[in-house]
Amino acid sequence: MASASSSSSSKPKRNYDVFLSFRGINVRNNFLSHLYTALDQNGLFTYLDSEELRKGEQISPALMKAIEESQVVIIVFSEDYASSPWCLEEVAKIMECKIQKDLIVLPVFYKVEPREVRGGRESYGRAMVKHESKFGKESEKVRRWKEALFDAGSLSRWHLNDG
């Protein structure tokens, strides 16, 4: 009996059914608003960051905690997702929690190809070149971001070309 209580206490606390990771007002106002509404109407408590981070701001510890306390994360990869260091920090944290906390991760590819997210030459490749020039080609941060994108881009997924 003691072992049952100790194993149940080691399970992570889950405050959210779903955490939505995305970038951009166009994604927020189109696809994401419909997804959020559908999740909400089905009784799923969903974390949707209501404020866009301004240039130079850090991701709040509350945002990272919300990722840790979610059962499922839906990452909506769009054309400019990788241009944001904050989105890349999010996806790195998400993939870390997938491994360490059994977080369920569902990628959605919104008007981008999965191969592009995994390291293609289009917008994701251009964004990573910019990050390498800013943080250094051998930067641990950039290495983590690339690995997280590759791993997330390799998961079972939904691919949407139309809004």
Shape descriptor: globular
Strands ordered across the widest β-sheet = 2-1-3-4-5
> Quick one: biggest sheet?
5 strands, parallel
Query: In CATH's first tier, which class applies?
Result: Alpha Beta
CATH 2nd-level architecture? 3-Layer(aba) Sandwich
* Unreliably modeled segments: 1-9, 52-56
- Tell me the β content: 15-25%
In total, how many beta strands? Answer: 5
* Annotated CATH homologous superfamily: Toll/interleukin-1 receptor homology (TIR) domain
Number of domains: 1
The sequence of SSEs as H and E is: HEHEHEHEHHHE
Mean pLDDT: 85
- The CATH topology label is Rossmann fold
Name the descriptors.
17% strand; globular; alpha/beta; 7 helices; disordered N terminus; 163 residues; single chain; Rossmann fold
Topology overview:
Blueprint: H1 2-9, E1 16-21, H2 25-41, E2 46-48, H3 61-68, E3 70-77, H4 85-101, E4 104-110, H5 114-117, H6 123-135, H7 140-153, E5 158-160
Parallel strand pairs: 1-2, 1-3, 3-4, 4-5
Structure, explained:
By secondary structure, this protein is of the alpha/beta class. It has one domain (11-50, 57-160): Toll/interleukin-1 receptor homology (TIR) domain (Rossmann fold, 3-Layer(aba) Sandwich). 50% of the residues lie in helices and 17% in strands. The protein contains seven helices and five strands, in the order H-E-H-E-H-E-H-E-H-H-H-E. It has a five-stranded parallel sheet with strand order 2-1-3-4-5, sandwiched between helices. Helix 4 crosses helix 7 (140-153). It holds the Pfam family TIR. Residues 14-163 form the TIR domain. Keywords: NAD. This is TIR domain-containing protein. It comes from Eucalyptus grandis.
